Every structure is written in C-alpha cells, then in structure tokens.
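Why do we care about 3D structure at all? Because function follows from shape, and shape follows, mostly, from sequence. That is the central idea of this module. The next example makes it concrete: a single protein chain, its amino acid sequence, and then its structure expressed as tokens.
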Amino acid sequence: MPSASSETVCVRFANEVVKAANLFFKQHSTNQVELPETLVFDAVNGRISIESFCDYLKTLELASSITNLGFELGRVVAPAGFNLLGHLVMVCPTIGEAMSLVTRYHSIVLDCADAEWVIAEDHCTFYWQPHDPDLPGMNILVDLVLAGMRFFGIWSTGIREPFSAVYLSYMNKSRQHLEQEIFGCHASYNENRNGIQFPRDWIRLPMHAANSDIQPLIESKVEQSFSQIATKQSILKGIHQVIKTISLEDNISLKEIADSLSTSERTLQRQLKELGTTFKHELKVYRLDRARELLLETDLTISEIALSVGYSEHSSFTHAYKDWSGRSPIEERRLFKDRAINVMPRAHV
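And the structure:
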C-alpha cells in the first residue's frame, strides 16, 4: 500500500457500499462473512482515505472469494450513495448534460481519479482513470464505479439498451456472461483507461426527474463542495509531500511545514481552519495511516511501529490507533491476516 495520500472517498458513498455488501451477502452467499455496519471515517471532514476504502474492498474480496465483487456491489449500491452529485444528475434535463456534470464534479464522491467526457461523431465515452491504478483493491473500485453508473443510469433514465463498449485498464478476467448481463456487451481489457461508451443519440434523451427550478440550487451547493475539496486537496497534498521528506520519529512543527511550502505559519494555520481541520489532526491521521501500512505489510512489533511513526509510548499509540480505526493495532493485524488466509467455499452468485 502506498503512503498516505490526501485522496479520499465521501463517507456517504463508502457507507452505501458497506450497506450494499451486507445486502449482497445476505441474499447471495451461504458464507459467514463478518461485515462492519459502517466504516470508521475522519469525523472532521466526513471523508475516508482512498487507501482505507480500497483495503476494505480487497479484504472483503479475500474473505468472500468473490472475484467479481465490484460488479456485484455496483448492482445494488443505492443512488443515495452518490450524494449531492446524484441529486444533481437526477434533475438534469438530458443524459448529455448529466454526464458533463459527472465529469466536472465526480471528485465530491471520489477524488482519486481523472474523468473525461468525449463526444465523437457516432458515440460518447466517459473515462474514469484512478491516479494510483496499482493500489490494492482499486480494480474492485473501478468495477464498482462503472457498474454503479450503469445501474444508476437505468434507474434515472429507464434506458436498458446495451453500451457500445466497456474499457478496463487491467488484465483480462473470465466473466463475459456477467459483463453481458450488466453492460450488454463484453469488456475490452488492458486498455489505457477505464471507460464506458454508448451511442451519441443517447445524450439527447431525458432524465426522469428533470427539474429546471431545482437544478441551479443543487448545482450551487455541489460547486461549493467541489471548490472546497479542490482547495483542500491542494493544501494537504503539499503538506503530505513535505512530511514524506521528514522522519515521522522526529517532532514535526507547523512552522517547519509552512517554511517548506513558502508560506507563513499563520497563513497555513488559517487555511487549515477554513477547511475544518488542523495541522495536528492531519499529522495524526498521516502517522496512523503509515502505522496501518506497517501493521499490514511488515513483521515489525507494535512498539517498533509506534516509535517509527512518532509515538514514544506503546500505550499512547494503541489508544490513538483504536480511536482512529475502531480496532487496536493487534486486532487490526490479526483481522487482516485471518482474512488473507481464510479459505472459504466460493459464494453462489
């Protein structure tokens, strides 16, 4: 798992995925898979790190032995999971305008990818390419996003006709029947980008709940949320890049970070306050994200991990980690290893 980043997932979307997972396993699996009701998230900002969310998807796949987990979750994730963006899309007049808005504002749900909307002579393509496609669990998220868009589209437009094409950037999987069932066509693998393609004529088709009176009001709120995320991304990315160059065992001060970013301590403090966070909080989250990586990927003792991320006492580290993740460091490591080695019969899907 890569170092902690400022890329995140909206908690509303993440927890709708958790609900979808619980619903799916209840209906389709005879396996006893222990699932959380919600995911622990950053209460200050209402976001979950992309690393934590993809790790949830990956460990869920390991525990369930379902290789097409993303597609299956995409079938049942509720439209409410797309939050304000989902509401905005629903009240748009046409599919074309809806896709343009998804391309512009997709980061308020998932700010971990680049999106592009391309209109050609006879077809249109929506591309969604993660910044870190090699992150464990990211392929599951890609499947979930594309399948989720398909079923959200069916729900909001009634269109069930086949897509023209589906593009996936990872290795081929033997699941043509499922691809045909979901998208109406077979996927093309090892592509440069992930994407879905459909006939150009679709962009003029209406959305069921189009409402020109409500759209500007929702779009104003979406724009506000989008701007805040973009600003925060820029500031936190700079902070994290500086922290990466400093040993977490050392005392890291706000002044040291501000100097590296060529700004004043007071300005940086004000910017963080406007974003609803503090330097102390962001440094703590970064340290604990790094601790989680070490727990899952190394055999270092808990005390060694605590020291490496800046905690001088085992007990204070354990307390902070449990407050942050909902599990103690020992429980976190044991749960991950149990899921990874657990051999269960394949679910009937």
